[in-house]
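@channel anyone free to eyeball this complex?
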Amino acid sequence: MSAMLEVKNIEVAYGKIIAVKDISVTVNNGEIVTLIGSNGAGKSTTLRTISGLIKPKSGEITFNGKRIDGMPGHEIVGMGICHSPEGRRIFPRMTVKENLELGAFLRNDKSAVNADMERVLDLFPRLKERIKQTAGTMSGGEQQMLAVSRALMGDPKLLLLDEPSMGLAPVLVELIFDTIVKIRKQGITILLIEQNATAALEVADRAYVLESGKVKMSGSAKELSADDKVTKAYLGH
Amino acid sequence: MAKTSVSNNVTRSNRKWIIGYSIAGLILFITYQFLIPWEGLPLGIYDAVYQWMPPSAINESLVYVIMALGLNIVVGYAGLLDLGYVAFWAIGGYCAGWFMSEFFYFLNIHFLGSVPAEAPGIHINFWMVLLIGGFVCALFGILIGAPTLRLKSDYLALVTLGFGEIIPQVFFNGENFFGFNISNGTKGIVRVDPIPVGVKDLGPFDFGWKLLIFLLLTAVMVFISLRLRRGRLGRAWLAIREDELAASMMGVPLMRTKLASYAVGAFAGGLGGVAFATHVDGVYAERFNFTISIFLLAMVVLGGMGNVWGVILGAFILSWVNGNGLTAFGQFYNDRFGTEVDFASFTFLLFGLVLILMMLFKREGLLPESRLKLMLHEDELDDEDASGSKKKVGK
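replying in thread with the prediction:
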């Protein structure tokens, strides 16, 4: 396995407030890697830095060997890093279909886009039923499905998922995690952020535990879910 | 879910409007060019038309329509609040003043102009000046946009407000702009060249024929608006309007896309500015004030942000009320009841009232864009509906 994404010692600040002090994360081709940690640990900030929404103060990020920190967001998307953001952020007044089309904004290969549309609708048959519905009128769960699907429409090599299970009913959480596994089977590498650490560790290969903007622990998902400290702090056993 | 299918109309590609528009335009043109000057027309009708809807008012309304359509691209499509749109009107106007009048009396440049070759000044063909005005404005749109578009909503509005004040002030005091006279200051540039249309030249009083030209310019703006809206750029604008951050995550280049909306919007300002200069046969600095920017914004909001037909309607109504309607109504009322109320002075009271009523009862505008209407009138479903089996169908 080769390293697809390498985040090396990044420091990220919003004005004077330092959100990420020193985080290094590696994601290998084909893996599901999860970042777990409590609120304010710097998980979302890390993801936003990777997708170019914020520039790191120091450190570097490489994707398939190429430096991407400092690149504008749309170029990073063009390289194959697609982000399903925290809080879904679907386009509420557009239909499901229009949302998905926007996910493929940078792609010009119409037939491939249509094929991908079929593929994501097969992943989430619920969205197929609602294809013409205005996205803002759908339920939270459906909006989450749409947010993930929309990111998939960008034909990602690396999919960044920020809290895909937040605020969802248990049934839907299960559905989302099942789908994450399916997406990986299609050959897409995934970097996942979750507060629901139990579920995240179940699907992930490796995990990083973040605390106050630093990596506290890392290892295989199995090891970490057996670790006492992790169990106590994040799994609530 | 009956309602939701409406939003698909936006993507439906059609040019049926061209037929309807041409017919309506032709009727308007024939009415004003041939029917009203016709000697057989009863005098009562003639008087009524001149009191309520004189040809100059129609033409002026169309200039407002062109501007409002331009502003609609910035405000309605891309969702960027611009309070200084009058700046583009002014720049467009002065392009006409510079390139088709005797203002630069020490020069003698002619290019397919409509005046004799010995006339001093720069005299370039009207149709080219239209393009020049449009592109100069687009350039200014980009120049103004580049530093300001990084700002978010309220701050952007404030900065555009500033530019909307600065540019007209520059022209207002332009008699000595670092030693050059660029605008004739408060005296203005009086007389611009007539519009050459091959068989004849259209001066300030050829209302009927100029109506046809203004209708054509409006059609061009409608075409550009609808065309862009359906294309890639339109989708990018819409995405930015909905959620800027999410748009950038989809790979929409934010700066470039926003600048494009400024440039296209400003282009319309240039067209309108040149058209207006030929309409009033001159360029007068004191006309370009802040009120115009607000006025145009009110047209867009009243008509229905994002919907070209709504914006056209809004622009027509407001410019008519402001230009002629209220005065005519005042005359009618005063004659009838023997009062002496100065109705025209109540213009802004009326506008304020209309805007308040609109915000209370019809926030999406007279002819709303379908998605805006949906959003303002449908409540969100909650999570239970998705996990459970019950579905709410068509509220």
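from a first look: Chain A has a mean pLDDT of 92.
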